[in-house]
Specification:
The complex is a heterodimer of chains A (about 350) and B (about 260). With about 350 residues, chain A is α+β, with helices and mostly antiparallel strands. Chain A is built from ten helices and seven strands. Classes of the chains: A alpha+beta (about 350), B alpha/beta (about 260).
Chain lengths: ~350, ~260
């Protein structure tokens, strides 16, 4: 299971494929150019002239750099931070040199000369890298806070307090079982608090489902019947954490708890070619389905699937013959892609 | 001091066991006897009246019928028990209890709190039916769920009539007559409160009458008179109920939608 890296955000280069990052670079470089021209020029009219001249040289270089960085982005993301910075610098310098050489031959307004161009380019790259590093530092508390909020959204207080109550009831009568229940609860919470951005193996997610189910079993007894159909589940497949557990929790909360009798929940996972198919179904209680909790959990899972698999994942829900079903289909992957 | 007779209602077995344990723990300070248990509202309605319970420990979130609805029904008993609500986490209910000064405990329950609540409950007696109704109204505003049953008191028993079986409700002098396919009952709720609570299910056809939308078969012109009057035809009964002039345009639209 993944370790918890609570407030530890290592330096990373910005994502050069992110529109926001591209816009920031464009604006920053042009502002620097404007400031330089404003300082060097004699008057307002001249400033505009000089800026247009500078832009004629600057913009092609800037755009070419952005295109190159966009293309190299997956490669850069895999490098150590300092290597990445050096690579970015080298790429931009090569481009700056090439632009300067091509410019001379074209003989448009005079370019400032190779050495000065390279120094200027290096300065600007350094400045921007520093800027993005500070920006990332400024955002990281927001990130951990967002994660905390996500955590609170994922733990249903109803489940937490009822489970603790059930464990309390066990302590005197069956201390061994109470111990096991607390261990299960800890495992569940450890996963809920872990870094949601790393892939887990299907085997781990299934283990989590079983821990969760045993806690609920304690509480609901024979009212909860779970049918596990996991014989052909590809346990080595990778998936984002906490994709199936919230679905099972929903199935229990909306499908079993509202019923006075026993409710059957089916957990089915199989591999179909290069796809992994998971299905969870439960008895349907229409009067309980409109609660916001269900939609929120589904929206959260859908969002994360999209983040991890983009358009390759599918999540569908439906009701038929008094049973409510959620189906997930994801690509069968054994290795995590470069950026996740 | 004699033993306080306690009845426990919770759908989760461990939760009921926990409450029994705690009652045992606090017995030296406040002696109690558990006179019965139930796993849901319907069981409780059957068992509580004969149990002679003085205090009810009542879970809020239960399948079939919630604790708050159960408390309202049991308030109709000749000698209604005091009620202490128990909830793991139900923000809306807790707010409503606070507003209406109803007693509640949070799960997991602490022994001292339980003892204090029992002492208070045995002194104060049964909760006021109006307070319960108000709290229920407030909870319904947040979660939109009306009662599943209406309670009819019969001596020291409660008879529950499923709301979905009701064909019409008609205000008489002091009571409201409730009509199902099979028979008639008298309930103590006011017609206005019923109309508000079950707005989705019933429609007003006259100053003194609500009918189930699903039971409307059609309309018929009333015989005689020069003035045009309409009667509503209902499933499950041959009675034809008059529609007031004021309600007619709205009903005609409803009929057109059907």
């Amino acid at each position: 299971m993944a370790s918890i890296k609570q407030n530890e955000y290592p330096d990373v280069l910005p994502d050069f494929r992110n529109l926001g990052v591209i816009a920031r670079i464009l604006i920053a470089v042009n502002l620097i150019a404007l400031a330089a021209v404003l300082y060097a020029a004699g008057g307002w009219a001249q400033t505009l002239d000089r800026f247009v001249q500078t832009a004629a040289f600057l913009e092609p270089l800037l755009l070419a750099s952005l295109v190159l960085l966009y293309a190299a982005s997956p490669l850069l993301a895999r490098m150590a931070y300092l290597t990445g910075c050096a690579t970015v610098l080298a790429l931009v310098l090569v481009l700056a040199g090439a632009t300067e050489l091509l410019w001379l031959r074209n003989a448009a307004p005079p370019a400032p000369g190779l050495a000065r161009i390279l120094v200027l380019a290096a300065l600007i790259v350094g400045l921007l890298i520093g800027y993005f590093r500070l920006l990332a530092k400024a955002y990281s508390p927001a990130l951990s806070e967002a994660r905390l909020q996500a955590l609170q959204a994922r733990i249903r207080p109803h489940f937490l307090f009822n489970s603790l109550n059930a464990v309390l009831a066990l302590i005197r009568r069956d201390p061994k079982r109470a111990e096991r229940a607390l261990e299960d609860l800890s495992d569940l919470f450890r996963t809920l608090m872990s870094d949601g951005r790393q892939f887990v193996r299907l085997a781990d997610e299934i283990a989590l489902l079983e821990r969760y189910a045993s806690i609920e079993q304690l509480r609901l007894g024979e009212r909860l019947r779970i049918v596990w159909e996991l014989d052909t589940a590809p346990t080595d497949a990778l998936l984002p954490p906490l994709v199936l557990q919230p679905l099972l929790e929903n199935a229990v909360y909306h499908g079993v708890e509202p019923g006075t009798g026993a409710g059957e929940v089916v957990v089915h996972v199989e591999r179909r070619g290069d796809r992994v198919l998971a299905r969870i179904e439960n008895p349907y209680h229409p009067e309980h389905q409109h609660r916001a909790g269900n939609r929120m959990a589904l929206a959260n899972i859908r969002e994360r699937l999209q983040l991890f698999f983009d358009a390759e994942a599918r999540l569908e829900t439906g009701e038929r013959d008094g049973r409510y079903r959620v189906e997930i289909e994801i690509p069968y992957r054994l290795r995590a892609p470069g950026r996740a | 001091m004699s033993e306080l007779r306690v009845f426990i209602v919770d759908d989760e077995t461990p939760a009921r066991e926990r409450l029994r344990e705690l009652l045992g723990d606090i017995a030296p300070q406040i002696p109690t006897a558990v006179v019965g248990e139930a796993r849901n509202g319907l069981e409780a309605v059957e068992r509580v009246p004969a149990s002679g319970a003085e205090v009810l420990l009542l879970d809020i979130q239960m399948p079939g019928m919630g604790g708050l609805e159960l408390a309202r029904h049991l308030a109709r008993l000749e000698q209604p028990p005091a009620v202490i609500f128990v909830t793991a986490h139900d923000r809306h209910a807790v707010e409503a209890f606070e507003l209406n000064a109803l007693d509640y405990l949070l799960k997991p329950v602490r022994a001292e709190r339980l003892a204090a609540a029992l002492r208070k409950a045995s002194a104060a007696g049964a909760p006021d039916a109006e307070k319960l109704a108000r709290a229920a109204d407030q909870v319904r505003e947040s979660d939109g769920r009306a009662r599943e049953y209406l309670a009819v008191s019969e001596r020291n028993r409660i008879l529950l009539v499923p709301v979905r079986d009701i064909v019409y409700l008609k205000a008489e002098l002091k009571y409201v007559t409730l009509r199902t396919r099979e028979r008639e009952h008298l309930v103590e709720d006011s017609l206005i409160a019923l109309e508000r609570e079950f707005a989705e299910r019933f429609v007003r056809i006259h100053r003194n009458c609500l009918v189930a939308k699903a039971a409307i078969r059609g309309f018929e012109r009333a015989p005689g008179d020069d003035e045009v009057r309409w009667l509503v035809l209902l499933e499950g009964t041959d009675e034809k109920l008059p529609v007031s002039r004021r309600q007619w345009p709205m009903l005609r639209e409803l009929a057109a939608e059907k």
